[in-house]
Write a structure and sequence with these properties.
The chain is mainly alpha-helical. The chain has seven helices and two strands; from the N terminus they run ααααααββα. The model has no long low-confidence stretch (mean pLDDT 86).
Length: 154
């Protein structure tokens, strides 16, 4: 996920989605073996509530990388929220009350029904993209550009 966020997501968002070339849907699928995943997803959605998802996710992934996926404290999440100018009181309330837990569970259920077992999982025209052979950035965007070209022809 971190590799995807750092190498693909930003370009996908800025160069494709924000230029109306593609439609993006972002779903949460916190993996159970990742001790921070569910609370990270919840925190990210609480930052989204204040229109700061991207900023929060960037800082959260950076912190996860620095800590080598060891436990991230609530204070560290709150420090990120403060750093990116979230209303920290609203953020804390949102996280502590699990405001988006139902959304996360719904996303998990949806992915499990589709037999998705890894992240990131990417669909193009409702077909999952096999990421096993992709040299991430170079091949990934060739596939996206090819799909856009095919869609325009139809």
């Amino acid at each position: 996920c971190i590799s995807f966020e750092w190498n693909i997501w930003k370009y996908l968002l800025e160069d494709y989605a924000l230029k109306n070339k593609i439609w993006l849907t972002y779903k949460m699928f916190p993996l159970s073996f990742h001790q921070n995943a569910e609370i990270d997803a919840l925190s990210a959605l609480c930052s989204y509530k204040q229109w700061k998802y991207i900023e929060f996710a960037e800082k959260m992934y950076q912190l996860e990388w620095e800590k080598k996926w060891w436990d991230v404290s609530f204070k560290e999440r709150l420090d990120i929220a403060n750093f990116i100018w979230l209303n920290t009181s609203d953020f804390a309330t949102c996280v502590n009350e699990n405001n988006y837990l139902d959304k996360i569970k719904s996303d998990i259920s949806e992915w499990e029904n589709d037999k998705i077992t890894w992240t990131p999982s990417i669909f193009i025209n409702w077909t999952i993209l096999d990421l096993s052979w992709i040299k991430w950035k170079e091949d990934f965007f060739k596939i996206i550009d090819n799909q856009i070209s095919l869609w325009k022809q139809n």
